[in-house]
Amino acid sequence: MLSLQNQIVLITGASSGIGASCAKIFAQAGAKLILAARRFERLEELADRLGKEFSASIHLLQLDVCDRTQVESSLQSLPEPWSNIDILINNAGLSRGLNKLQEGSFQDWEEMIDTNIKGLLYVTRYVVPGMIDRGKGHVVNIGSIAAYQTYPGGNVYCGSKAAVRAISEGLKQDLLGTPVRVTCVDPGLVETEFSEVRFHGDTERAKKVYQGLTPLTPDDVADVVFFCATRPSHVNISQVLLVPTDQATTTLVHRRN
Ligand code: NDP
Ligand code: 8X3
User: Fold this and answer.
1) Which CATH architecture has domain 8-242?
2) Is 157 considered catalytic here?
3) The whole model's pTM is what?
């Protein structure tokens, strides 16, 4: 495993799924982690595990990325050794509902847009200027296959991930001439709490999403994020689309039952 000793990595949405797996792989490589999410007790449990397993150095932030004032104050009041963020993993995100647009819930729409688009923008806006000043940095955005292919009922979620794709491209263009890299990692089906959140806690419906196929694991995605973040500084992996072998498009999947 490559060493990331003394690298500071901020991961949003680290309390579950892909974010928690990213925390594990970067901790294993010796990075110092800032783990952010709303569920603080989850972060504490994760930090405890990673501390025991890898002697990881971890700073926790209870943070709702939708709250711009909170994002600003949390990031601007980071204690000195933690403020020089080298790698930002914008992972916090969610889907809510799978309704036809004409029957959609305003609250679900706002939650997705506020988290997946505006939250990502707020965190990026407060972190990237420091990267430019220090002449070093990497932003990894977790997008989705949903950015490329809209599926029925996916309307606003797919739109939010298409925005992440466009914003990642825009940031890369705006950072041209600086050493700061931008990567968008776009996974297909990954079994996490994602579908439980989408279906507002309906675990039976959530399980069916992955039934009969072998989905990606959050560790599979973290592996890719880690690979992108550990290339030589002249190499920028701009986009990665990774899907389960059982998935060809958002809607074309192979199920064995
Ligand atoms: P999980 O539901 O397991 O994890 C989502 C994470 O985002 C949690 O840690 C949650 O923490 C955090 N989060 C949600 N809202 C906020 C908020 N307002 N402020 C801070 N943190 C927040 O799902 P995944 O791990 O699957 O999702 C991670 C990312 O991957 C998302 O952006 C998702 O869109 C994307 N993705 C997922 C795929 C999948 O199939 N699972 C495929 C493609 C992309 P907390 O609730 O504690 O705040
Ligand atoms: C998550 C993957 O296909 O459920 O972004 O939208 S999908």
Assistant:
1) 3-Layer(aba) Sandwich (3.40)
2) yes
3) 0.98
